[in-house]
Amino acid sequence: LSHLGPQTSSAGGVYRQMSSASTGPNLKVAVLGAAGGIGQPLALLLKASPLISELSLYDIVGTEGVGADLSHIDSSPKVSSFTGAEKLPEALYGSSLVVIPAGVPRKPGMTRDDLFNINAGIVRDLCAAIAKYCPEAWVAIISNPVNSTVPIAAEVFKKAGMYNPRKLLGVTKLDVLRANTFVADAIGVPPERVSVPVIGGHAGITILPLFSQATPRVDVSPETAKALTERIQDAGTEVVKAKAGKGSATLSMAYAAAKFAESCLRAIAGESVVECAYVESHLTELPFFASRVRLNRNGIEEYLPLGRFNDLETANFEALKGELRGSIKKGVDFISKA
Ligand code: NAD
Ligand code: LMR
User: Fold this and answer.
1) Which ligand is the nearest neighbour of the Cα of 115?
2) Which of 142, 172, 233, 253 to mutate to test the pocket of ligand 2 (most atoms within 8 A of CB)?
């Protein structure tokens, strides 16, 4: 995806340039919430993937229009559209990867946790259907609050007796893109050359960029490191404010999710791929934690060690634990105490 540019003319051609695989392994990918602000541009980017044989679009409203539009693009994935809960089984059946951007976004003044009351039930119901109709699929959750919706999905899958923690991934890739972008700007290198691990969770202070483990080396003052960290932590709010009531990040999120989905598909196809994701984890005392994970065809193959923190990172790591623990418990309780 990093080579998307004006010199390219055909969507299939673009994707072949940006993907290391030239022929696809025929995978079905379902997008739940496909008619939304993230869902539409995400579906557009996925329509250009040679790794996908069927792109299954599902929403509670408006899916057919999005599907008809995308189906005219001259790239291989076949587009199918499904609207309404009675069509969900067909949308899911046979999927290798399910990406979930379904749910309401923030308005100015709201926290991601303010979305819990609506989005928790949406994620619960969609995951119950996944457990029934494509229990082997990888599941990538975008719907906020991610810190709670991923534990909700895990509890639903446990209840259904098919939970595989290695295939349940909370999407935190946008935090990584933001960290790369802001750091690149600060140190004066092209963003494509920067790689900053971001760990913890996906809300405010739970988002923890690790400049000490970035490439290239990030040599900035402690003040600059603190300011950069805060900008990355508040970047979602920056977009919510700029959109002034018209939602949150959609285009950058779709780009992040498409890159993340491509990594999952390459892993399913047999490659070894490293991504940051919010997953069930034993790296810390917190039961869910975002870190770098190595993916292979079976899901998470390895949880990469967190490495040594500098002083700022140590303080931020200590500071995030209380909030993240609370968000995880809230998600678990939503299912287990229902
Ligand atoms: P949106 O309102 O534009 O789109 C959401 C879509 O979900 C709508 O089309 C809606 O019809 C659909 N939907 C609602 N209930 C559904 C259900 N039960 N089944 C299927 N579809 C359903 O919102 P958006 O801007 O696309 O954001 C979606 C979610 O993604 C929000 O919760 C937002 O906070 C989150 N988000 C997460 C990240 C991240 O980094 N993880 C980044 C941006 C946004
Ligand atoms: C983001 O980080 O942009 C998303 O989580 C959306 C939001 O509410 O900020």
Assistant:
1) 1
2) 253
Query: What pTM did the predictor assign?
Result: 0.94
Could you read off the pLDDT of 160-173 as tens digits, one per residue? 999 999 999 999 99
pLDDT digits (tens, 9 = 90+) for 65-122: 999 999 999 999 999 999 999 999 999 999 999 999 999 999 999 999 999 999 999 9
Q: Between the CA of residue 183 and those of 175, 193, 209, 260, what are the distances in Å?
A: 12, 11, 10, 20
CA 171 to ligand 1: nearest atom: 41
Alpha helices by DSSP H, the chain: 11-18, 39-47, 63-70, 88-92, 116-133, 146-160, 173-187, 222-233, 235-243, 251-268, 311-336
pLDDT in tens, 194-245: 999 999 999 999 999 999 999 999 999 999 999 999 999 999 999 999 999 9
Show the tokens assigned to 196: 């900053």
DSSP for 132-201 reads: HH-TTSEEEE-SS-HHHHHHHHHHHHHHHT---GGGEEE--HHHHHHHHHHHHHHHTS-GGG-B--EEE-
As for ligand 1, residues whose beta carbon falls within 6 Å of it are 32-33, 35-39, 59-61, 101-106, 115, 119, 122, 126, 142-144, 146, 171, 174, 202, 247-250, 253
- Other beta carbons within 10 Å of 85: 12
Cα 249 to averaged position of ligand 2 atoms, centre (Å): 6
